[in-house]
Amino acid sequence: MQIVEYENKYLEDVKDLLVELEEHIVSIDKDHLDQVHPEYREKMAVLDLEEVNKNNGKCYLAVENNKVIGLIMGCIFPYDEYDYLDYKCPKRGEITELIVTNKIRSNGVGQELINKMEEYFKSIGCEYVIVDVFAYNDIGKNFYNKKNYHTRMETMIKKI
Predict the structure, then answer these.
(1) What pLDDT digit, counting tens, does each position of 77-130 carry?
(2) Nearest to 99 by CA among 113, 119, 117, 116
């Protein structure tokens, strides 16, 4: 297996992985709010990759036998003009997507991908890395905890 930067020849594999991730999120969503819209496969990867390009980000792929088995996307989002009022605003990277195909999860691929993204963020002066993890994604939360990430904010939801 090797970790490479995104190339267009892998677009269909990226689409498949993002669908796999969203189907997993749908399957664990106790609020039943997530969905895989019929247009998701064709639009989401393109939108995510545009966001990466627009925000000084990277998309790294784990490739084995010319097939993408995992991916990570990350961006450097700008602060808004008023963030400085209540926040020190250190430079930070944000992991926006991380997926390893279910067939080979727990074999270190996710660790290699996250290490590669953290190296990139550090190389351009980021002091922190943030990631949003779906509240019902216990596997994801455990993974990030093992990599020394911790909860800083939580989003609460109530159906009314």
Answers:
(1) 999 888 888 888 899 999 999 999 988 877 889 999 999 999 999 999 999 999
(2) 113
Residues 58, 73 contacting (CB under 8 angstroms): yes
Phi and psi at residue 103, in whole multiples of 5°?
-65, -25
Q: How far is CA 146 from CA 16, 53, 73, 111, 143, in A?
A: 27, 29, 19, 10, 5
* H-run or E-run covering 22: helix 11-28
For 84, 88, 111, 129, 132, the CA distances from 74, given in Å and listed in that order, are 23, 21, 15, 9, 12
Q: Give me the phi and psi of 54, to 5 degrees please.
A: -75, -20
The predicted model scores a pTM of: 0.90
- The CATH architecture that domain 2-146 belongs to is 3-Layer(aba) Sandwich (3.40)
Task: Specify the 3-state DSSP secondary structure of 35.
Answer: coil
Beta strand pairing call for 128-131 and 92-100? parallel
